[in-house]
Specification:
The chain is α+β, with helices and mostly antiparallel strands. The chain has one domain: 2-Layer Sandwich (Alpha-D-Glucose-1,6-Bisphosphate, Chain A, domain 4). About 25% of the residues lie in helices and about 40% in strands. A 7-stranded antiparallel beta sheet has the order 1-7-6-5-4-3-2. The radius of gyration is 15 Å and the shape is globular.
């Protein structure tokens, strides 16, 4: 089972792509740090200093300015696809696969996951369109 989330960002695909893969930029909207530039085959350590948490992702596929595929958690594969509409706007599509319909908390997992991707994309939009870097890690559960 998968979970799909989309958002329009008023920036060209190359800027959106770099926000994800460049460790100097990702801390402005998502994780507080990334161990290195995202490239196919690499294992990247992502940290949330605010939550004293970290985790590794494995980059499965990269297509410059178009697609990022990584695996995290227990068998979850995330595909971030960038659909450039023109030279100034991009649809960012996040598709996460690996949810099991037989899990007791299946619906909760999907809703929680959707909230997370919507929040991350909102922070990305704020960062790239308006230079806002203080939204990241502001969500309280």
């Amino acid at each position: 089972m998968n979970n799909l989330t989309k958002m329009k960002i008023e920036r060209p695909a190359n800027e959106v792509f770099e926000a994800f893969v460049d460790p100097e930029k990702i801390g402005n909207f998502w994780f507080s740090s990334s161990s290195e530039r995202w490239e196919q085959g690499k294992i990247i350590t992502l940290r949330y200093e605010e939550y004293a948490a970290q985790g590794d992702i494995t980059i499965l596929e990269i297509k410059n300015n178009n697609k990022i595929v990584f695996e995290w958690g227990e068998g979850h594969v995330v595909t971030i696809t960038l659909h450039e509409l023109d030279h100034s706007s991009t649809i960012v599509e996040v598709n996460e696969e690996g949810f099991r319909e037989t899990d007791d908390d299946f619906i909760h997992q999907l809703v929680d996951n959707k909230e997370g991707w919507v929040y991350m994309l909102t922070c990305l939009k704020g960062y790239l369109e308006f230079g806002i870097t203080k939204l990241r890690a502001g969500l309280v559960k």
